[in-house]
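sry for the spam today, last one i promise. struct tokens for design, 281 residues
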């Protein structure tokens, strides 16, 4: 049976405890972000990620993005991140920016058909970042059924997802509403995959070379972005395999640290209406 916890104010211990326990058990949690509500699962548990996809009614061709708590976790999950991409992350994280990167090959995870990429984001929501620091990276997509508008409050999420979710964290009405902007960093220059809360002008103020969404189509072999948990869904992640030494990189060790929204592959429900599509914001 699902449980709902207040995720505002100072008495958050019960909410954190219930959410961490659910994530460790491989169950799903709905949480607020700076954009929309997201549905989250342990990024390193393939069965949990599959439950997330099933709850939304979406296939493996739409992998969820991964949320992390700090920008420093970027290199634990991604590789070959270009300098321009780092500038964007430093400027807009925490915030509504999801970046698609080449995934670390040492990670053991299965987010879906990611074609070796992962979509990452650091949400601008203090309580959710604290939760991420306790759970480690979470696969997060917008909290809604595919094709439906992303939930802006916990009650809407609960109505759509029901008993498929073990724990609902009530952070009140989210103030964002727009999904995160998704930028692909796997090519020669950063390229916008989806415009959202951040405009092209804002991105180019930091990195003038950022290519617009319709400037140049990506080669067919390069995957589309994924979701956002933002949660407004945001993008396609890559196959994840826990670090060679054991499971997650040191900086992502649960429950003290957390690294990251996702992979390459945009879905209809996660475009403007499904904000965290490739990115989960």
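last one done:
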């Amino acid at each position: 049976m699902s449980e709902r916890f207040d995720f505002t104010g100072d008495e958050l211990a019960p909410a954190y405890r219930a959410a961490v326990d659910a994530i460790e058990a491989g169950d799903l949690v709905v949480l607020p972000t700076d954009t929309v509500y997201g549905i989250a699962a342990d990024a390193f548990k393939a069965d949990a990620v599959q439950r997330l996809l099933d709850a939304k009614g979406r296939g493996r061709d739409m992998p969820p993005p991964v949320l992390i708590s700090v920008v420093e976790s970027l290199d634990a999950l991604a590789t070959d991140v270009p300098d321009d991409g780092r500038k964007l992350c430093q400027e807009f994280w925490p915030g509504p920016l999801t970046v698609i990167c080449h995934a670390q090959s040492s990670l053991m995870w299965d987010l879906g058909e990611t074609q070796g990429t992962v979509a990452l984001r650091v949400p601008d929501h203090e309580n959710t970042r604290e939760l991420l620091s306790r759970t480690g990276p979470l696969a997060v997509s917008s909290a809604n059924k595919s094709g439906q508008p992303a939930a802006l409050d916990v009650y809407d999420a609960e109505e759509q997802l029901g008993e498929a979710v073990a724990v609902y964290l009530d952070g009140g009405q989210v103030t964002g509403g727009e999904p995160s902007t998704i930028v692909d960093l796997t090519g020669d220059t950063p390229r916008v995959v989806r415009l959202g809360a951040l405009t092209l002008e804002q991105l180019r103020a930091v990195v003038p070379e950022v290519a617009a969404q319709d400037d140049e189509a990506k080669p067919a072999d390069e995957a589309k972005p994924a979701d956002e948990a933002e949660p407004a869904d945001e993008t396609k992640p890559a196959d994840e395999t826990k670090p060679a030494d054991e499971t997650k990189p040191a900086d992502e060790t649960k429950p003290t640290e957390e690294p990251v929204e996702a992979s390459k592959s945009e879905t209809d429900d996660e475009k403007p209406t499904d904000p965290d599509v490739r990115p989960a914001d």
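The two ends are 26 Å apart (CA to CA). ok im logging off now
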